[in-house]
Amino acid sequence: MVLARPRRFLPSISILAAFEAVIRTGSVSAAAREINLTQGTVSRLVQNLEDQIGRPLFERQKQRLVPTQAAQAYARDVTRALDLIQRASMELSTNPGGGALSLAILPAFGTRWLAPRLSKFLTRNPGVTINLATRVKRFNFAADAFDAAIHFGVDDWRDAGHMKLFDEHLTACISPRLLAEHPVRNVGDLLDLPLLQLETRSTAWEIWFAAQGAPAPSVSGMLLDQFATMTQAAISGLGVALLPDYLADIEIEEQRLVPLLQRSVAGTGAYWLVWPRSRANYPPLEAFRAWLTSELGTS
Length: 299
Fold this sequence. Notes:
This protein is of the alpha/beta class. The chain has 3 domains: 8-92, Arc Repressor Mutant, subunit A; 98-166 and 270-298, 3-Layer(aba) Sandwich (D-Maltodextrin-Binding Protein, domain 2), CATH 3.40.190.10; 168-267, Periplasmic binding protein-like II (D-Maltodextrin-Binding Protein, domain 2). The chain is built from 11 helices and 11 strands. The chain has helices spanning 13-25, 28-35, 39-53, 69-94, 107-114, 118-124, 176-181, 204-211, 227-235, 245-253, 283-298, and strands spanning 58-61, 64-67, 99-105, 128-134, 148-153, 160-174, 197-198, 223-224, 241-244, 258-259, 265-276. Strands 3, 4, 5, 6, 9, 10 and 11 form a 7-stranded mixed sheet that branches. A two-stranded antiparallel ribbon has the order 1-2. Strand 7, helix 8 and strand 8 (223-224) form a beta-alpha-beta unit. Helix 1 (13-25) packs across helix 2. It is elongated. The two termini are 45 Å apart.
C-alpha cells in the first residue's frame, strides 16, 4: 500500500527552485536574475514556502534575507532533490527507451580497467547510457545520486549489495633508468631506494616484503593519494611503486616500468561493485552486473 503524500510537505518546483537559488546565490536579486523572475516574485515564492512549511526560513535584515541554520540544512536536501529530478528528466529526454546507469568509480580502476572494456557492454546493451564520476572515498548513496559504485576493500558497505570483482595483487615496479643506477638483485637492495606509498594502502609494503620473506623496513618515500600519480612518479624515477597488476602489466608491457623480485603478491583487499539495496532490480544495473560476470569469466 502506497501512502498518500501530504501536499503541505510537497512544495512546487517553482517555489523550491526560488528558495534554492536564493540560498546558493546569497541574495534575492541574484536569484531573480538566474531563474529569470522579478525580485518581487522570488520574495513571494520564498514567503509561500515559509507559509506552507509553517516556520521562518530567513531572518529579514533591512533588504537582505539571511538564512537560518535550519534553512541551510533544508537547502542541501532540496538541492539534491532538484539535481535528481533534473538528471532523470535529461536521461528520459535523451534516452527514453533504455535508461542510464550512474556509476561512481575509483580513478585508476575506472580509466585503466573499466573504460577500455565498456564498449563491449554498450554493444550488448545499446539502450543503456553510462555516466561515470570519480569518488576516492566512500559516500552515502542516500546523499549522492549513484546507482552503483566501484569499491576497494571488503564487503562492508552499509545497506548495500555487493558483487566481488577480483582480489588486488601488487607488483613492485621501478623505472629502467633508476634500476640502471641502483640495481636490485635482492630485497636488501631496496633499502636504499625511496618506496612510494599510497594513502589507502598503508600496510601494502609490509605485506609485499613479507611475501619476499623479509621484514618491512621503515618506509620513507613520497605519500600519494592516487595510483595514477604514483605510477607517473615511478616512471619519472622518484621511487619504487607498488602497483596493482591491472596497472603494472600495462606499464611493464610498454617498458615504462620494470618489475622487481616476486610479482603479483596478494594485496590488502578486493574490488567490489556495490549498490543501494533499493536499486538492486534496476534494469541497467542488472545488465551491468550480468556483463561484469561474463567479462570476468573470460578475462
